[in-house]
Amino acid sequence: MLNLEKSSAAFAEAKTLMPGGVNSPVRSFARVACDPPFIDHAKGSKIYDIDGNEYIDYVGSWGPMIVGHAHPDVVKAIQKAAERGTSYGAPTLLESQLAKKVMELMPSIEKIRMVNSGTEATMSALRVARGYTGRDKIVKFIGCYHGHGDSLLVKAGSGAATFGQPDSPGVTAGTAKDTLTVPYNDVEAFKNLMDTHGDEIAAVIVEPVAGNMGLVLPKQGFLSTLRQETQKHGTVLIFDEVMCGFRVALNGAQAAYGIVPDMTCLGKIIGGGLPVAAYGGKREIMDCVSPIGPVYQAGTLSGNPLAMTAGLATLNIISAEPSWGKADYTRELTIKTKHLLQGIAKAAKDAGVKIQIHQAGSMFGIFFNENDVYDYATSEKSNQEAFGVWFMEMLNQGIYLAPSQFETLFMSGAHSDDDIVKTIDAAEIAMQKVAQF
Ligand code: PMP
């Protein structure tokens, strides 16, 4: 059994200092049967807690750590930048370098603005879309999470779903009324909504691959319908690729599915583990942003040199030319993820446990569910008790998974074949436990 004595003591103290002992709710492990390990350090595919336990990490800081923890190139870049000063609040070459790199990988972004979190990116993109169209209403999909901006905490996924708070108190009725919601993948409901309200809608925001109700893939025709309908009504289509950008494919879900959005939100990977996010898109729309346009948005630490350099180092690693005989970085991760999932699927089958496994590049998710999962309602029907048994048994065996079925798991370039074998071995034991419970 896992010894979490020091972590539990640290958590008890933290609870007197911070709501739930944490600075972001899902970290509290409140829906699973143990206290959260307090992390001491991380390297490659592994994280280590203050009790001395080692885990193979499939959370990867909820997505950013695509090249693994403390990658030498990223650490070196941050160290070098830190020696030159940690923040200037003035323009730097690094900002343009990261901007160019992101735009080269996602050509739908003609201009970009760096911010500090995914929340800021989506919140700002919506403000710009409203300023650009002169309209108030937005559409989001039930179970998608776009950060904790007021207008997006309506039928939200991720921690909001985990804790049964998809509609947060504190969001005014006036704000909530401008957010219209539709089930993910429901083309008919979306078309009906656009038929009645299309001309009042500033923006449709979507996770093109949804990672906040577990991992849910877009059905054939869903994203193209969003594109057609928004075009028809002069509505801005925003792809929130904060999570799926550079994971579903190097050039994002927009390349994988061949849909060009008007705006894109990015985060996580573009900061290489430091607080960076960005929003960008068509020049005409982005030119609404201050100081050249009237829509105000700013940030003391936006474009921070440490964060820019960490993001740039990370994007350089994943976009480097592959060595001879190798697939590119994201393809390699996709193949590695597939191997892991084949092993987990077999472990479940051998134990007689019915699961749904979803993969999109290096993102993956497992639902304890006999039926297809394609939206929030179907995801919510997954067996929470079975998940709890699976989660605890995997943790006991040193496999660190997200403590909720409404989250996505991530493969990194640092995960070795040995890590994958160990994870599959653990899964065989865990699935037997699930079968017995
Ligand atoms: N959009 C998506 C798709 C996300 O997954 C998240 C966070 N997981 C956010 C926005 C918000 O990002 P942040 O937590 O950096 O505010």
Automatic annotation (TrEMBL):
It comes from Megamonas hypermegale. Keywords: Cytoplasm, Isomerase, Porphyrin biosynthesis, Pyridoxal phosphate. Its EC number is 5.4.3.8. It comes from the Bacteria. One of its GO terms (biological process) is protoporphyrinogen IX biosynthetic process. The modification N6-(pyridoxal phosphate)lysine is found at residue 268. It is found in: Cytoplasm. GO terms for cellular component: cytoplasm. InterPro entries: 4pyrrol_synth_GluAld_NH2Trfase (IPR004639), Aminotrans_3 (IPR005814), Aminotrans_3_PPA_site (IPR049704), PyrdxlP-dep_Trfase (IPR015424), PyrdxlP-dep_Trfase_major (IPR015421), PyrdxlP-dep_Trfase_small (IPR015422). Pfam families: Aminotran_3. It catalyses: (S)-4-amino-5-oxopentanoate = 5-aminolevulinate. Belongs to the class-III pyridoxal-phosphate-dependent aminotransferase family. HemL subfamily. GO terms for molecular function: glutamate-1-semialdehyde 2,1-aminomutase activity; pyridoxal phosphate binding; transaminase activity. The gene is hemL. PANTHER family: GLUTAMATE-1-SEMIALDEHYDE 2,1-AMINOMUTASE (PTHR43713), GLUTAMATE-1-SEMIALDEHYDE 2,1-AMINOMUTASE 1, CHLOROPLASTIC-RELATED (PTHR43713:SF3). This is Glutamate-1-semialdehyde 2,1-aminomutase. Pathway: Porphyrin-containing compound metabolism; protoporphyrin-IX biosynthesis; 5-aminolevulinate from L-glutamyl-tRNA(Glu): step 2/2.
